[in-house]
Structure of AMP nucleosidase:
Amino acid sequence: AMMAERASAFIALPGGLGTFEEILEIATWGQLNQHQKPMILYNVNGFYNALIAQLDHAVQEGFLPLQHRAKLIVCEEIDQIYNVIKNLKMPKRFVV
């Protein structure tokens, strides 16, 4: 919980069950308006393609509102992640 409070963004790299749980937990918190922070999937070599397809399927079937699916940003390259982070409005306490 402390990590979520202090984070400016969430970036998920490929991982196992713990990573999947954290992705869905942070996405759920965003859906519940507990944060408005960017949520990024680093889709290395298509690792998250199946998860992305499942989320899109949930939208098509009416189980996941499109506006909540759209909050999950998929990046294929590090430069894309950098651009998302670069464009954040950082709290003053983090600005040097």
